[in-house]
Amino acid sequence: MPLQPVSKVAFCDRADLQLMETSDVEGLMPWRTPVRDQAWMLPPTLDQLVDAGHQVRLVAELVDGLPRADWEAMAVVLTGQTKGAPAYHPRLLLGVWLYGFMTGVRSSRKLETACAEQLPLLWLTGGQRPDHNTLWRFYQAHRTKMRTLLRRVVRVAVQLGMIDWALQAVDGTKIAGNAAKKRTLNAASLAALLERTDAAIADLEAQHRGGEDPTPASLPEQLRSAQALRERVKEALKQCEDEGHSVNLSDGDTRVMKGQHRYVAGYNAQAAAMPVGKEDGGGMFITAALVTQQPNDHGQLLAVVHEAKDLTGATPLQTAADAGYLSGATLAECATEALSVVMPDAHLHPTDQPYHKDRFGYDAATDAYTCPEGQPLSFHHLKHKQGEGEVRVYQGAQGMCLSCPAIGRCTTNRRDGRRIERTKEDAALQSHHAWMSTPEATATAAQRKCLIEPVFGILKEQMGAQRFLLRGLENVRAEWTLLATAFNLRTLWRVLQRRQASLAGTSALAA
User: Fold this and answer.
1) Distance between CA 470 and CA 434 in Å, rounded?
2) Pairing of strands 184-185, 284-292
């Protein structure tokens, strides 16, 4: 018996259905029955179906208003071909990808479906439906050059006076790559895997080597896959030996690093954020977006700050970062560039050690230290330390520490007594420690989490950035840049909506 159309199937008796929908209880409101075959006398246009304040209209305004220089920076040619079938316009394809990133859709196949089903994308494309291959080819060809979009959106926010320049927050977050951690192997594991792969290939070749059988036109699938695996393992083993670290077979650029809840094979995504002015209702703009393979934030601060200055065209009054960025070299460079930075330094200045190096006062005029017990330590000799360069060593007079009541707690060296080593960054560290002890610095440091942590939360939970979809450092950097651009577009749209509502309210009151 052939199946009936779904609309004709009777799942229950019509009389029973009417009985279920009838109620004698007074006070109940009637049902609003959906009419699925309702006809329109005058069919609406796509423009009428999308709200005038919808965020997709901001995407269209951005893409349609990009100057030729930005298209050239993305290596996009706007001049169409004179022959052949008409192609999809780059403005359409770029707009689809931007709106997809804003709404958490970063897959070309999902975007293909959305272009056929979602009204905002139907409006954006004018009813055209690019397939996933077309979308992917455009994305693959131009994504690494789309940093110009982030700059454009940030500069628009700056020109409209939306950014509060008082403070910039910097932080990093670990994002898993498109690779399983268990596929990260060291040199010994890779060598063992290569040996097993060679044995498997030899076995497969023996199975397909017949006595009188003709040579096959192409390699069997199993053998072809095994040989491809061998090549990947060989490349990974060479990379492992050259660079001295474990290598992931799926994405060789990932590194094993500690995420929020577990270790992942991924990347360290860096960002800087600045607040929206209070008159615009709050929010954040991402002013820098970088990706590094380094598992920690050490040494990354200046790169992020320089990126933010390049995108915004100016420097905020203060920059706040967490303790992971703190080092003497970083502080010295910040001082050279006259940057005001706020970074907690409690781990470098323990308060429970009364004879810590920082408890010894230094006098630049005499180039000498004074210990907590009041004894002088003068310059003794120079030495060189790997990674720190030239180090000056200070110590007291011969036998001075033997008669000190702190012997054993301050030093266990009874022959030479206590020694202090001073690097070229010590002055910057001490100056920073004094700055961080002020109420102003303490209050500023407390604001950092309120700025940057919500940014990462929105990117991961609302925009789907729990993991990167692409592989390779350059591709991941492009993906992170587009995520930051989409985040800023969402913020820009909200601020513009508030401003428009405020103007409408003012006009109404004036009338």
Assistant:
1) 45
2) unpaired
- C-alpha distance from residue 293 to each of 256, 281, 297, 298, 299 (Å): 9, 36, 10, 12, 12
Tokens of 75: 């290596």
Give the pair of three-digit tokens for residue 454: 């919500």
Is the distance from CB of 253 to CB of 293 less than 8 angstroms?
yes
Distance CA 160, CA 102 (A): 21
How far is CA 427 from its chain centroid? 33
Q: Dihedral angle at the C-alpha atoms of 296, 299, 300, 301, nearest 10 degrees?
A: 120
Contact criterion met (CB below 8 Å) for 296 and 284: no
Residues 62-72 pLDDT 10s: 999 999 999 99
pLDDT tens-digit map of 162-192 = 999 999 999 999 999 999 888 888 778 777 7
What phi and psi values does residue 382 have, to the nearest 5 degrees?
Answer: -105, 150
- Long-range pairs, 104-109, Cβ under 8 A, ≥24: 104/462, 104/463, 104/464, 105/464, 106/464, 106/469, 106/479, 107/469, 108/132, 108/133, 108/135, 108/136, 108/139
Contacts of 355 (CB under 8 A, 6+ apart): 371, 372, 406, 409, 410, 411, 418
**Chain centroid offset of residue 447 CA:** 20
Element (H, E) at 348: none
Amino acid identity for residue 256 in this structure: V
d(C-alpha 260, C-alpha 164), whole Å: 29
Q: What is the pLDDT of residues 287-316, one digit of tens each?
A: 999 999 999 998 899 999 999 999 999 999
Which two structure tokens, joined as six digits, stand for 231?
A: 């090549």
